[in-house]
Write a structure and sequence with these properties.
Elements lengths: L12 E12 L2 E9 L8 E2 L2 E3 L6 H13 L10 E2 L2 E9 L10 E9 L12 E8 H5 L13 H18 L13 H12 L5 H10 L4 E8 L7 E6 L15
Parallel strand pairs: 1-7
Antiparallel strand pairs: 1-2, 1-4, 2-3, 2-8, 5-6, 6-7, 9-10
Length: 247
Amino acid sequence: MSRYDPSAFPPFAVTVDLVVLTVREHALCALLVKRGEAPFQGYWALPGGFVRPDEGLAEAASRELAEETGLRASSAPGQASAGAHLEQLATYGHPQRDPRMRVVSVAHLVLAPDLPTPRPGGDASGARWAPVGELLGQTPADGVPLAFDHGQILADGVERARSKIEYSSLATAFCPPEFTVGELRRVYEAVWGVTLDPRNFHRKVTGTPGFLLPSGGTTTRQGGRPAQLFTAGGATVLNPPMLRPEG
């Protein structure tokens, strides 16, 4: 190590960007913050920021989420904490993705049920939930322009969520601790952007081993007759999977 010279290599920074998704009013929504400083001042962006020298990536992701929005998530990828799920999504490192300097971003996906209205903080001048369908559009040209390469990161995060609820129990991360089959179905419909047959869906989810566990309670919060309440089962992989409808 005595011959190692760090100055022989060009410096660069590491950031975390967060794709925070929730279901609000039966629509899949993403969290955006309005940048209060250059570059891209006034643009909507994903929450995030620079990783500090003394923290890990998951720690940085949790800190940035709390600082910029007041929301909290687990710093342990793949585990639930206070109704939230956080996992690494992908790494983005195009040399020109940030005009300030060479910046590599490690994006994270955060999922939680019906999150509250966020509050801006840090260098964010505003924060809001926005329907994913409006942000992404039918094609990239139809979508809302976001700062940096955040449009691509958002699209990747949404596709991760859409794909992962096919073969895992991740859809329950959008639900409260106790939920009905109808509420779970509306999560699938919101994430996939489709309408599902209630009877077929009920048969599939209740017949998939380890997916749902009856809680023993019922609720009338959806109106009509009391509906049975469930909790997430212990299965992490669904067999058979919940395949996304074609088209």
